[in-house]
Design brief:
3 helices; YkgJ family cysteine cluster protein; mainly alpha; UPF0153_domain; Puta_zinc/iron-chelating_dom; 28% helix
């Protein structure tokens, strides 16, 4: 499965505990990553500063569903069940 262009819910819904440039303590769930630009593109994509958890994420029907609304629900549910 390919990511839906502009969705970026994987950069908003889950918490990330790794250091992110500009977010030294990571980011809480539901907070937009500071590295997303106004066009919803990751400004550190492919760079060594990008957290491993981000680089290792792959879009899947289980996490992303078929719509952005489903992705928000699925990723939020996954986040709450792993806390």
């Amino acid at each position: 499965m390919n990511c839906r262009l502009g969705c970026v819910l994987c950069c908003i819904a889950p918490s990330i505990t790794s250091v992110i440039p500009g977010m030294p303590k990571g980011k809480p769930a539901g907070v937009r990553c500071i590295q997303l630009n106004d066009d919803n593109f990751c400004m550190i994509f492919g760079l060594p500063d990008r957290p491993d958890v981000c680089a290792e994420f792959s879009a899947s029907i289980d996490a992303c569903g078929t719509t952005n609304e489903q992705a928000l629900w699925l990723i939020t549910d996954l986040e709450s069940s792993t806390c």
